[in-house]
Amino acid sequence: MSDVITTEVIRHALLAGTEEMARNLCRTAYNTVVYEIHDYGIGLHDATGDVVADAPGIAVFTRGNDYGIKRSLEFVGRDRMRPGDIFILNYPYWASAHTLDPLVFAPVHHDGELIGFASCRVHVLDLKQKNPGYVLDSTDMYQEGIVFPVTRLYREGVQDDDAFELIRFNSRMPERTIGDIQAQVSACITGVRRMTGLADTYGTDVLTGAMAAINDHGERLARLALAELPTGTWQADDIIDSDGVDLDRPIRVDATVTITGDEMVVDWTGSETEVRGPLNLPRGQTEALCSLVFKAMTTPDTPVVAGNFRPLRVVTEPGSVMHAVPPMPTFTLWTGLLSGEVVLKALAQGMPDRVPACSGGDVSSMMGLGVNPRRGDAWLEATNEAVGFGGHAGGDGEDGIMHLSEPGCRNNPVEVLETKSPMIINSYGYVPDTGGAGKHRGGVGVSRVYRFTTPSTGICLVYKTKSAPWPVAGGRPGVPARIVLNPGTEREVVQGGSYNLLEAGDVLANVTGGGGGYGDPFERDPQRVLADVINGFVSVEAAEGDYGVVIDTTSWQVDAAATAARRGARGRT
């Protein structure tokens, strides 16, 4: 067993170990999606697969790693996992993600006993999926790339060359794909060393006792916070534009959330079934997105541990969009990124003082690829864009920050994209009037405009363009995201998720959504509206039309008399 002081020392050592794993990964990865955007999930886990420390990245990845390790233990067996083994898993229904998000993990042994795991998941560039870059219209898993069902990359410390040659011959970009997987291996080895070092220092019993205490404490914190939340049952739903195959069929996701004194239950019964395209979610990712919301509502100020989620129960229907079963396609995982806010939409009905309005609602990713004329080799670069966050009881939503599904991530800088690809960024900035009006304004979205200097493919991953970001407490909706090809020309096309074959000179604008507003817009302080106009977040026309605030554009001051009259016309002074 471990005393409380030793437990706390071990807890911080485990957290430091995951941060070292992340730094190691970022220094050795080949892919800017990893080392610039931080599209990864890194964790140290106990012997059952429960996470005890993680490094911030893609929030849903770490809980997905728990799920994948547990499925791997069932498939391989504890006794067949040897010291020095390193596994890769990307079978979606076990791995909790699509095939290009492989989980690499290593068992940790001490004195012959399995005491834990080190895990690292990243987005790799190519594993023989049917389309280069990303798949938007697969209809079964067999179109989504080569599958590894808990496969050894290293056997007792010795590299399995057959596994890596299989990857090499099944990837359009083998050097970068293998480089990223080896970076994952390196991160896991770092985690194994740090955990075994702790076992050497404190002994196996003390370390395993400390990990159990860490998760038990995480559970106590979650239950104390859960007891402070209102009890009740609330339902909400929203739509995703389409599944990529049946383009005229919006995909409905339905969440019923129940809070009792003992647990939060998120029930996805009623969500769409028989979804032909690849928006179906592996069960592990559904659990992970619910865990993200539960964490935000209960213990947002402490690091993630598996104990935090013991009071959470997730209900799904096998075969539905929230619980894919073989061979349902799962490649376009945007359902997992958008559905967290459906849970929040339900909770907002019972606790509007605690839950913000909807954010811009989408990760709004753009991926460009083709042949680089500078070197003649294949290129692929991607970035996720910032969105506006929803207004809330405490104030305005943030302008232009990363979507809530990826709080540890960044976007790809202009300089990196222009250096590594034949793309020029024509403009990049906030988009006025995208945030929903309210007493507390929704944050505005951003626009990044790409010009392609050579024939390329532009893959747009944007799936919330047909439903507006919802408001709270009388606010107004935000403006949803959109993709605009060749804006302002005769060839202009406005769209969402799409696979575009582009010519040299084509322009693509990725315009992200603004957050919903909170509260009556006519109750917003006119001076704050004026500041929004001066700062470019709200237009003069919207100030008057949405907020009832008349701006004198000669003096750039609020016209108090005209504002009073304008607001009074609605029965308010």
From TrEMBL:
Lineage of the species this protein comes from: Bacteria, Bacillati, Actinomycetota, Actinomycetes, Jiangellales
GO CC annotation terms, alphabetical: cytosol
Species for this entry: Phytoactinopolyspora halophila
Domain of life of the native organism: Bacteria
Pfam family, one: Hydantoinase_B
PANTHER family: 5-OXOPROLINASE RELATED, HYPOTHETICAL 5-OXOPROLINASE (EUROFUNG)-RELATED
GO biological process: glutathione metabolic process
All copies of domain Hydantoinase B/oxoprolinase, residue ranges: 3-521
Official protein name in the record: Hydantoinase B/oxoprolinase family protein
Alphabetized GO MF terms: 5-oxoprolinase (ATP-hydrolyzing) activity
